[in-house]
């Protein structure tokens, strides 16, 4: 069975750190060796600081994948979609790698990042270093519970991980869309709780869907449903951020099917016939976005030892 990187399906933590990195020219061969060491390093630290619940992952961007792993590409790996909408202005990041570290101890995050950066010092440049934190009892800065319709239990793996029947080469991996959404907190806080709930489609206290008579067609809930019936099979892993006068949400969406991301944005932007755009987008500005693939551990191992030619190397 393919072994996924532990940061994909991990439960929520108190602290998150993210590195967006650009790889220096000609580093692909040594980088294939070092990327395997990052999950191994995180596993050792997780065992040493067992109470911290440390997890993490390393992901390769859609534009850098062919340079690092030219033998085969995940079938659905594409750049973050650029969609025509006055409500969404995205600057796509050209970062080659995304490295995420999460735990319940900020000092353990620091130690892990320090060791990762020391490992990759000669091979990369860090273009962005971002930090997220748990807010209250797992809420966004809007005051609402984060991702109340997120899949739970075994459904997390089913939503996020590529099954072997679909792709033996990339089984246990996951397609990942990352973006930073800046919240217009001043104008959001001027709304009443009832107005906020109608924009989200959820109750502010417990995240339960509003009754049908209060559920608006342009609410976030309605615009996030596939065909208006059920949530798209995406696993959200969000963390609030605040830095200076900027605050909002760092969003990681995982899926076993890359086309789900384009569907998500078509629904939220009202690009499908007869649909409304997500009114929550009036309060967010997405200024950084990128698409990645998170390979399974078996894939990283096979790439590091040069045995990608045989798919049996991907399963242990």
UniProtKB/TrEMBL annotation:
GO MF term list: heme binding; metal ion binding; peroxidase activity
Dyp-type peroxidase C-terminal domain: residues covered: 138-297
GO cellular component: cytosol
Keyword set includes Oxidoreductase: yes
Keyword Methyltransferase in record: no
Residues of the Dyp-type peroxidase N-terminal domain: 5-134
Pfam families referenced in this protein's UniProt entry, alphabetically: Dyp_perox_C (PF20628), Dyp_perox_N (PF04261)
Cofactor: heme b
Assigned keywords, A-Z: Iron, Metal-binding, Oxidoreductase, Peroxidase
InterPro entries, per database record: Dimeric_a/b-barrel, Dyp_perox_C, Dyp_perox_N, Dyp_peroxidase
Highest taxon above the source species: Bacteria
Family statement drawn from the similarity comment of this UniProt entry: Belongs to the DyP-type peroxidase family.
PANTHER family the UniProt entry points to: DEFERROCHELATASE/PEROXIDASE, DYP-TYPE PEROXIDASE FAMILY PROTEIN
Protein name: Dyp-type peroxidase
């Amino acid at each position: 069975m393919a072994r996924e990187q532990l940061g994909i399906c991990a439960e929520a933590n108190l602290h998150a750190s993210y590195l967006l990195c650009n790889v220096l020219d000609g580093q692909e061969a040594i980088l294939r060796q070092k990327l395997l060491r990052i999950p191994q390093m995180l596993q050792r630290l997780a065992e040493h600081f067992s109470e911290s619940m440390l997890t993490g992952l390393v992901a390769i961007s859609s534009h850098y994948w062919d340079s690092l792993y030219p033998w085969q590409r995940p079938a659905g790996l594409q750049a973050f979609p650029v969609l025509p909408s006055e409500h969404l202005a995205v600057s796509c990041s050209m970062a080659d790698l995304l490295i995420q570290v999460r735990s319940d101890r900020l000092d353990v995050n620091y130690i892990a990042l320090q060791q990762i950066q020391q490992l990759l010092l000669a091979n990369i440049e860090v273009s962005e270093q971002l930090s997220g934190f748990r807010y209250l009892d797992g809420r966004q800065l809007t005051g609402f519970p984060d991702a109340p319709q997120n899949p739970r239990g075994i459904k997390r793996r089913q939503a996020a991980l590529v099954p072997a029947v679909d792709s033996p080469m990339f089984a246990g991996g996951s397609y990942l869309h990352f973006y930073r959404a800046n919240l217009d907190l001043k104008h959001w806080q001027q709304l009443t709780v009832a107005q906020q709930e109608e924009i989200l489609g959820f109750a502010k206290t417990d995240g339960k869907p509003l009754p049908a008579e209060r559920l608006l067609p342009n609410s976030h809930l309605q615009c996030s449903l596939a065909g208006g019936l059920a949530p798209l099979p995406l696993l959200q892993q969000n963390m609030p951020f605040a830095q200076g006068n900027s605050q909002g949400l760092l969003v990681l969406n995982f899926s076993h099917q890359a086309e789900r991301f384009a569907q998500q944005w078509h629904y939220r932007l009202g690009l499908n016939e007869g649909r409304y755009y997500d009114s929550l987008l009036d309060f967010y500005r997405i200024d950084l976005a990128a698409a990645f693939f998170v390979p399974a551990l078996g894939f990283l191992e096979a790439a590091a030892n040069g045995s990608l030619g045989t798919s049996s190397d991907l399963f242990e």
